[in-house]
Write a structure and sequence with these properties.
The complex is a heterodimer of chains A (about 475) and B (about 120). Chain A is of the alpha/beta class and about 475 residues long. Chain A contains 15 helices and eleven strands. Classes of the chains: A alpha/beta (about 475), B mainly alpha (about 120).
């Protein structure tokens, strides 16, 4: 038998049911890897060792009794913005340094219900605002492929943890690329489902019309299993969609012959690193060999997606983060003079630089006299971008392009200019604006660094995306590569 | 300043629409509206970065949106669902207040508001 951390999540679930190893053995093995990695990667904010071992013992009892669920005994980690009852949820912020949620997020409850064992909470950009995991109050996460580089963000801790095989799978969220971009930079599979597919209840809100929970795993098959257990209607989320969850695992092996793939013309333009482009074009040749038909598709309004996003997301952020008032929960300043001083100093001290920048941008674009020029204008352009996607999906089944313009960059390289950082998400934001599902899968390397390929589908086409990604992963082995030092 | 054609082919901005940089007073006013205390060293940093963000999002001026309805929901044809108007919440105030910075007798304490 190979080492436990080399076995993918689906293999671990099957191995547990077959009693080839116990959940306590798995949990001990992964907790050991997390402890050994923390100084080098800083992927976790909180490790829940005792609770994990207790849950693993319970899982072993369930497995022995034959009452296990789809994930019984499988270790996972949660991004630290999913509320976990009794375990602190920091959102990467000083504001929530001591916040202990009185309830579980629906995603946490569902995965717990399926039998998964939580090992801890992963590091992230503060309030999920960032593309490099450098805005965390708990320090940057390092890329397991090269520790001088960023893992991407905002789900950088979850991505680094899965890439280094500290856990076989982790939850994450994606508002403008926060699952797919770190998946690409860390060489793993990142799935952002359709808006409304996964409940946002108990997921600390950043931009509510864009936020969506999803998965970071080694492979598409692992993502299919995790998503099947996480997704579904939730009356506690008013934007959750009442729609049956298909068995994503059952359709993974459908043949790709005849699949119509659109190459996103606007993504293969200046700004895309030529070696990155070559890896993506190599992958397209693989899809063609599997029977897919390729054609070029143009989405003329897509280039405006980053400016649209940096109006809509900060506007929603300024509104959502108004709840942090230093009164009911969260950081409170010392010796406030009056109520206004309490609000202003608690928020000024509790939030980091990027969060404050976005709150202020949002406050400005929503303020009297500017609302029409910025917010309404952005929502009109967002409509045009969404219509571009609708037109494209009348001609093709999926759209393919790169996930990011370049591989991972150095820690500190893009922190001085926010716009340079924002442009990291140039290829990922469109799917959020239109509420579409998208997946990033590893498609090769530039030197020692992984490159991501993005597949975008129409609303609720997760099964097709996972099917296409799985077919590619059966024909290639990029998704099985583990960074040197972590194998 | 940000070269869009370098990333994508977008027509250059109309020169008359280049926004003026934000003043220090404007930043102070935004920070007040957002209930954020900024230090003397933070102010000029946000003056620069917010000005460049406004220039960046000013690219939206170039899109022709005449007659386009602003998008109100990310899923076409869907609007916000309503639930039956019945009481579903239970009283958890003691549990919720464990996260509060300062409470007494079940109440949240703040500095005196009414003199």
């Amino acid at each position: 038998m190979s080492e436990l951390h080399h076995i993918p999540l689906t293999g671990l679930a099957a191995g547990l049911r077959a009693r080839r190893f116990s959940s306590v053995e798995l949990t001990e093995a992964f907790l050991g890897r997390i402890a050994a990695s923390q100084g080098a990667l800083n992927a976790f904010i909180t490790v829940t060792r005792e609770q994990a071992l207790a849950d693993a013992r319970a899982a072993d009892r369930a497995l022995a009794a034959g009452t296990g669920g789809a994930l019984t005994g499988v270790p996972i980690a949660h991004k630290d913005l999913f509320c976990t009852r009794g375990v602190r949820t920091t959102c990467g912020s000083r504001m929530l340094e001591n916040f202990v949620s009185p309830y579980d997020a629906t995603v946490v409850a569902k995965l717990k219900g399926a039998g998964a064992v939580m090992l801890g909470k992963t590091n992230m950009d503060e309030f999920a605002m960032g593309s490099s995991n450098e805005t965390s109050y708990y320090g940057p996460v390092r890329n397991p492929w090269e520790p001088r580089l960023v893992p991407g963000g905002s789900s950088g801790g979850s991505a680094a943890a899965v890439a280094a095989r500290l856990v076989p799978g982790a939850t994450a969220t994606d508002t403008g690329g926060s699952i797919r971009q770190p998946a690409a930079l860390c060489g793993i599979t990142g799935l952002k489902p359709s808006y409304g597919r996964v409940s946002r209840y108990g997921m600390v809100a950043f931009a509510s019309s864009l936020d969506q929970g999803g998965t970071l795993t080694a492979s598409a098959a692992d993502a299919a299993l995790m998503l099947r257990e996480m997704a579904g209607f939730d009356p506690n989320d008013s934007t959750s969609v009442e729609r049956e969850v298909p068995d994503y695992v059952a359709t993974l092996d459908a043949p790709l012959a005849g699949l119509r793939i659109g190459l996103l013309k606007e993504f293969f333009d200046k700004g895309l690193d030529p070696t990155n482009e070559q890896r993506v074009r190599d992958a397209l040749a693989v899809f063609a060999s599997l029977g897919a038909r390729l054609s070029e598709v143009s989405l003329p309004n897509l280039p405006l997606s980053v400016p649209v996003y940096y109006v809509v997301a900060p506007a929603e952020c300024s509104s959502n983060l108004a709840r942090f008032d230093g009164v009911r929960y969260g950081h409170r300043c010392e010796n406030p003079r009056d109520l206004m001083d309490l609000y202003r100093r608690s928020r000024g001290e509790g939030f980091g630089a990027e969060v404050k920048r976005r709150i202020m941008t949002g406050t400005y674009v929503l303020s009297a006299g500017y609302y029409d020029a910025y917010y309404l204008k952005a929502q009109r352009v967002r409509q045009l971008i969404s219509a571009d996607f609708t037109r494209a999906f009348a001609e093709v089944d999926v759209l393919i392009g790169p996930t990011t313009p370049t591989p991972a960059f150095a820690i500190g390289a893009k922190t001085s200019d926010p716009i340079t950082m924002y442009l990291n998400d140039i290829y990922t934001i469109g799917a959020n604006l239109a509420g579409l599902p998208a997946v990033s899968i590893p498609c090769g390397f530039v030197g020692e660094l992984p490159v991501g390929l993005q597949i975008v589908g129409s609303h609720f086409s997760e099964a097709l995306l996972l099917n296409a990604a799985h077919a590619y992963q059966r024909a290639t082995d990029w998704h099985t590569r583990i960074p040197g030092g972590w194998a | 300043m940000y070269d869009f054609p370098l990333i994508f082919r977008i027509p250059p901005p109309h020169p008359s629409r280049t926004p003026m940089p934000l003043t220090r007073e404007q930043i102070e006013s935004i920070a007040f509206l957002a209930r954020l205390e900024l230090s003397a060293t933070e102010l000029p940093v946000y003056q620069t970065s917010l000005s460049s963000i406004l220039e960046f999002i000013g690219a939206l001026d170039r899109a022709d949106t005449a007659g386009v309805t602003p998008m109100a929901h990310p899923l076409p044809g869907l609007s916000q669902r309503l639930r039956p108007d019945v009481v579903t919440e239970q009283d958890h105030h003691a549990e919720y207040q464990r996260n509060a910075p300062q409470v007494a007798a079940g109440l949240y304490l703040v500095p005196r508001v009414i003199e």
